[in-house]
Amino acid sequence: MGALSNLRVLDLTQVLAGPYCTMLLADMGADVVKIERPGGDLIRSNPPFVDDPEAEAYGGYFQSVNRGKKSIELNFGDENDRADFLSLVEEADVLVENYRAGTMEKYDLGYETLTEYNPDLIYSSIRGFGDPRTGETDRQGQPSFDLIAQALGGVMEITGQEDGPPTKVGPGIGDLFTAALNCVGILAAVNHRAQTGEGQYVDTGMYDSMISMTERAIYQQSYSGEAPTRQGNSHPTLFPYDAFETADGYAVIAAFNDRHWSDLCDVMDRPELADQYPTTADRLQNREPLRAELEAWAAERETDALVDALEGKVPAAPVQTTEEIFEDPHVHARDMLVPVEQPGSDTDVEIAGSAIKMSETEPRPRGRAPLLDEHREEILGEEAETTADD
Asked: What does the pLDDT read at residue 385?
């Protein structure tokens, strides 16, 4: 039994931000019904596949963020499908959608309409630029993707090497961080409803979320009046806090406090550096010559040897590939790789487990992603089966 097993969530989302949000809810036990437009979620056909894209129902992209959900296919332009949808709304706890602002209103299915059918409904939207209900701007209605959000929100400007171009963060954080914040908002609204009986509208914008995530850049601009920019893997106010090339790869070292700095100098057999640069201010002022010392020391050692020498004294770690992540015993002990069935293939696949751990109601992926319209009969009942056969 999951912590949210008392909740039914109508999931009208597609691609990444919305599905990731509702995936978090499903992992915690919510009954998530994915309502897909005719033809299904746009990313059902996205690679990678295990063997044969023609035989497999969907690829890894769809599998990873839609595990444990149910699926029905509805066309809001069809009168019968619209009636079926409204019947589900009447019994739902939460609805999540990530269309452009105004899309649901085109079908007369906006927040105000749906609350006439269910006054307790928590209606949540994820959009590139938020919803006019919570703050109207001239950007609303424009399409947005992770790349757009990272560019506008300042992430790309502070990511990358000093002499390189603005760089996108690898994972789709414009989607993923927005999704996580939206999930927090939904759960807060659920708690509020439990106390007051009131539903409400929850709105999370991707641009807004990236500004929230780049908090350091915001206060740096405010305090100093200067726009922060790229500085590779280093940190503007901490040193050493960086990645260093080793004889066979890269390792990160985070020895910015005085004790860790002293321990690092001992391991390097350079105690004089600890004496010469005892404070954070000293090390920041002389970061370039000190970086050169660390680079020379790291370059003579293999990654594992360097990390082993610092273990227990100084925070350090190898920069791992996904292949190394799959081999890490910690990852398996924490159930962070979960096997699920891949329809159309004889081989199970592994997806990322839940990072949320709970002692009594453990979140976990609750089975594979659904086939398109797989749960029509279960959700809409015998009448729906008859209608589909007709």
From this structure: 47
pLDDT digits (tens, 9 = 90+) for 168-201: 999 999 999 999 999 999 999 999 999 999 999 9
Nearest CA among 337, 344, 321 for reference residue 50: 344
Q: Integer distance in angstroms from the first to the last C-alpha of the chain?
A: 37
Q: Is the pLDDT of residue 203 over 70?
A: yes
Catalytic residue among 11, 175, 208, 373: 175
Pick from 256, 228, 229, 230: nearest CA to 242: 256
Q: Is 96 helix (H, G, I), strand (E, B) or coil?
A: strand
The pLDDT score that the predictor gives to residue 381 is 87
Rounded-to-10 torsion of CA 190, 196, 198, 202? -40
By residue count, the chain amounts to: 390
Report which of 359, 362, 389 is spatially closest to residue 377, judged by C-alpha positions: 389
Distance CA 98, CA 19 (A): 9
pLDDT, residue 4, reads 97
pLDDT, tens digit, 9 for 90 and up, residues 257-266: 999 999 999 9
Q: How far apart are CA 72 and CA 337, in angstroms?
A: 28
Q: Is the pLDDT of residue 390 over 80?
A: no
Contact predicate 150/210, CB 8 Å: yes
Going by C-alpha positions, the residue among 82, 34, 89, 42 that lies closest to residue 62 is: 42
Is 175 annotated in the active site?
yes
> Tokens in use for 312?
């227990």
DSSP 345: S
**pLDDT for residue 387:** 45
Write down the pLDDT at residue 141: 82
Domains and CATH numbers, the chain: 8-213+332-389 (3.40.50.10540), 241-245+250-318 (3.30.1540.10)
Alpha-carbon distance of 193 to 188, in angstroms, equals: 9
**Dihedral-angle region of residue 376 (phi above 0 means left; psi in -120 to 50 means alpha; beta otherwise):** alpha
Q: Are 380 and 389 in contact (CB under 8 A)?
A: no
CA 6/CA 132 separation, integer angstroms:
31
